[in-house]
Amino acid sequence: MKNIVHRITILAILFSLINCSGNKLSEDTSDITSLGKTEWQPMLKYTLELHKKSTHAPQYPFDYEWEEIGPGYSSGSAFGHWDIVHQTFDAFVYDKRHGIKQLLNNVKNQESNGMIPGSIWMPGGKSGRKNVHWNKGSQGHPPVWVVAVDDYIKLTKSDSILRIFYPVLLRQITWFENERKALNEGFYYNDILLKKWESGMDEGVRFDDTGFGPLACVDATSHVYMLYSYATKWSKMLKMDENHFSKRKHELENFINDSLYSSTDKMYYDIWAISDPTLRHLVIENFWPLISGAISKERANSLIDDYLLNPKYFLTPHPVSTVSASDPKFELRLWRGPAWNSLTYWIAKGCMNYDRGDAARIILEKALVFK
After folding, report:
1. pTM (2 decimals)?
2. Under CATH, which number does the domain 180-371 receive?
3. Dmax of the chain from CA atoms?
4. For the chain, what is the radius of gyration of the CA atoms?
5. Residue closest to 226 by CA, chosen among 154, 152, 293, 299
6. Per-residue b/e over 152-164, b at no fewer than 16 CB within 10 Å?
7. Distance (Å, rounded) from C-alpha 275 to C-alpha 295?
8. Which of 169, 141, 156 is nearest to 233 (CA)?
9. For the segment 190-217, what is each residue's pLDDT rounded down to a tens digit?
10. Low-confidence stretches of the chain (pLDDT beneath 70)
């Protein structure tokens, strides 16, 4: 259990479930273990304790206290972009200041070309490392930090932090356009080239049979669409010109819906799987167009009703499965079938963005009560 704490996002799941029922979050979340069902309490207390054990005093390269991936993590002490954003969603429930400090720690180490490190490996512990190090060229991670920043703005009702994060966003967009632009259109993660799992999906089945070059990935393209969406929104909030970002956002929206969608399957895929149906897999990554808000409500409802709420595909005993239960690649091992709660949380967010709190509630409730 301890070596997967970085994927838990239990507190965020609980509060999403509360929101699904129309309740307001209390301003005082100091005693969050008193909320929810009685049977959830041991899990909530355990999760809070793990967050405490994972938090350390400031040290290079961080300006603030920092939260590691989790005590007992198999690769030793680390601070991860994809992972720390999920931990930040949890932190917002019990300590917003701690949460925003993790995001500040994260973007502080942005490279001059706009790349934000995927994972920062810390010294000490079972790893035996003597120095801090991270990949500065070929391994970023999904840029989902923008969602956490926007959530913080909503929670605090203040956009003052945009003076820090807005320039970071623009630099990261530049990095994606310069370093991860796919052939013709869209964006890719270099899993397709190097299998470094830059997509955040370790050993993703989509990349088992690829070797086609830098082609458009459905998740990377949706993530960059999301960057342009927030660049448009934040520009307006700052009273700056958003026209370029809005234009690029709509270009990617059209590309996602025209070139990454199979009308036969009523599903989104990587572009190579659109071209060759034998390469198609039903995986959780295919839902990033839903999560990012790039698709119509009609298509969103189709994905939710036909796939996410269908036990044949993704509504497994602990949803949402990483690989569909119907897919030949489904296995009972991580990333090949069983779900991470953090990805379940993203799916629920996608459902709620399309006013499908009913679907989010079914998925979240099953995730919380699974034994």
Report:
1. 0.93
2. 1.50.10.10
3. 54
4. 20
5. 293
6. bbeeeeebeebee
7. 20
8. 169
9. 999 988 889 999 889 999 987 778 999 9
10. 1-8, 10, 15, 18-19, 21-35, 370-371
Q: CA–CA separation, 332 vs 140, rounded Å?
A: 28
The answer to whether the Cα torsion of 137, 138, 139, 141 is positive or negative is: positive
Q: CA-to-CA distance for 273 and 343, rounded, in angstroms?
A: 22
Asked whether the beta carbons of 330 and 336 are under 8 A apart, the reply is: yes
Per DSSP, 359 falls in state H
In whole angstroms, what is the distance from residue 314 CA to residue 190 CA? 26
The whole-angstrom separation of Cα 80 and Cα 72 is: 15
Residue range(s) occupied by CATH 1.50.10.10 in the chain: 180-371
Amino acid letter, residue 43: M
Residues 85 and 268: their CA atoms lie apart, in Å, by 25
Distance of alpha carbon 339 from alpha carbon 360, whole angstroms: 15
